[in-house]
């Protein structure tokens, strides 16, 4: 058996402080069972977020408690980014696409033509006019109070005034 060099016995093992506790950022597994998280879940989480599932619904899908699901978001940045991509980024891209569809846009297109026996790709720009249906959808969601089809009408009815009016009406004779 090899003998420890002088002073070596006084040194704590790697990843531990002088009291023997694990230091922050250590690479050794801690107590408890291994995590159910797998990096392959990232893409699936992104797709579920695209479908609009809540965190509670996604945690049920993965078969874990919502607390565990939230801990995964804290412990695994790639998992958190996948969820954000599915939620925030996707919503932003759809909103941008709807805006362009509503207002119209100029797009760059390509056409393949045959000239003198050779095929050539010609790039050109084309304007796609705005779509009134997309504009209405955008305005209904953004400025609903002004653009909704359904209008609300407030009507108040005072029962006591109506009864008083009935009492004031002349009664038919012979009653």
Could you characterize the architecture of this molecule?
The protein is an alpha+beta fold. About 45% of the residues lie in helices and about 15% in strands. It contains seven helices and two strands; from the N terminus they run ααααββααα. It has a two-stranded antiparallel ribbon. The protein is flat, with a radius of gyration of 34 Å.
Q: Could you tell me the number of beta strands?
A: 2
User: Could you give the distance between the termini?
Assistant: 124 Å
Strand content: 5-15%
Low-confidence segments: none
Give average pLDDT, whole number.
Answer: 82
Rg over alpha carbons = 34 Å
- The gross shape turns out to be flat
**Main sheet specs:** 2 strands, antiparallel
> Helicity, in percent?
40-55%
The tally of helices reads: 7
Order of helices and strands: HHHHEEHHH
Task: Please state how the strands of the largest beta sheet are arranged side by side.
Answer: 1-2
Look at the helices and sheets and give the structural class.
alpha+beta
